[in-house]
């Protein structure tokens, strides 16, 4: 995520924070660990979905289904590589015996006929609309065929979260025009590209008819209960059902029926206003501000001027479903899943075939959500609808455990519906468009920047909480509030539903508190310093469980913090992998200078892994100097000084012996 955006707290509610709940659970768990009483596998109850529950399929490729947890054979040893050491190199470092290659970088051609990238950034918005966007983030791989190896030809969907306007233009923002605004908008969105393994190397098929760009100007449809609401109507769209573009595409998801979900996160930063305007309470709650994040789009594109078009911002902040196999199909914004700063989308399927989708609101003191479809996946597809079109949206309340010193907590999913007494008088479109305010009233638990979520094959679910440096108070249920430092390292929580995946109660546990055991000065003596079993890390963000059950962790240490203060021993961001049975964590990858590691997936045979390297070369102030774009990094092209600029990119990692990644 762009760190310029949301290190603020726009949640004025008095709801409890997760940290107030965690400290008690963590302190009890530490007591158990001291006595050798904590087993490696907590939460062993719960009913997994049946793998055969999803048989509805689209015309070309079968759905990407989760395995039945009862049928999963987990390898005895999940981690089969030597850890990569921390370093400050301007390259991607992977374990001995592995190779990483660039697959798709910002500016590479996507649509047939697009030109190659111009390293002086002189190309206009029309060209950018045909090329890969900037700042790669979430991604997933979709197999292309059913009649032969699904792991040699596929489609990858890659998010483009935001832009560095110091790199996007030759002179940065020294001059500012409507054409520059348009190029900035076109550099957002999603790239859909066909890829294949050819002569031992993965490559983009530049002439594939499946390739397309989805940008901030692409026509999309609002569907579900809030579609057509007066809250979504604008002067340009009186129906409230047609929106232009998708923005701030952060995390992502892969549905069990074979579509891609991109998550609109910090959309508020693109909006602003001129003259006199008083934002509404709802706009304040979503962080709409006069100057936004400094993009200045509203100066030349009136739809981003809140004073002129106050409802336009309501048309962002959704899960957006994309069909990777049909380039002519319009992307859908799924209003039933709520409007907030979606960070990721993780899916389960119940035994009776309904879809369950988890998503977090990535801002300090916001919430974790769960959507359960009204119809089964089969029925929805028969009706020509996405299973995400209708259903019930819930928000999580985390509670301390009932039994002292058991190291566990409990929780409840609170329905955000018109029948919830806390929402008396609310209409369903009010709830779904202003989901944050509805969740405030429902009594959800405030969380420390809910980042990525992953659903492991054994039925466990994991969520990252990146950090909260501004926390000031510690009490029974707050494990980290170091004086003047808060919780700089973050942590990972896991939970299991009580029974079916659509259950309304769950049990949870702190899976790991991140930290640096060699840097005690980063905290104070009264604050838990972390319980990492293995390689140190902090600010966990990206998260993904592979088919064997490994949990891959990606870090997003801000560029202002890398190599300093709590992170003095962590100069570059990294990707690690954990064996959930032993909780051993090993560092698998270290990225180039100034980057974030984000987005991870693999081919079905797990022999090729795709990872995104976002904003290499980003300076501490997060805006590059256009007169010296290579000041921090020259990755990936390593061009002569003055003749290049760093580029976000998707890389592909393979084992030299052709084996399973990580094993």
Please tell me about this protein's structure:
The two termini are 30 Å apart. Helices cover 9% and strands 28% of the residues. The longest helix is centred in the N-terminal third of the chain and has 17 residues, at 18-34. It is mostly beta strands. The chain has eight helices and 31 strands. The protein has helices spanning 18-34, 125-128, 165-168, 178-186, 281-285, 377-382, 428-433, 435-442; strands spanning 98-105, 136-143, 153-160, 189-198, 201-204, 212-214, 219-223, 242-244, 249-254, 260-264, 319-322, 332-334, 346-349, 354-360, 364-366, 368-376, 391-400, 409-415, 447-448, 450-455, 461-465, 491-497, 505-513, 533-534, 540-545, 551-555, 574-579, 584-590, 596-602, 608-614, 649-655.
First CA to last CA: what distance?
A: 30 Å
Coarse structural class: mainly beta
Radius of gyration: 23 Å
- Note the beta-strand portion: 25-35%
Low-confidence stretches: 26-72, 474-478
Short key terms for the protein model shown above:
mainly beta; 663 residues; 31 strands; nine-stranded antiparallel sheet; single chain; globular
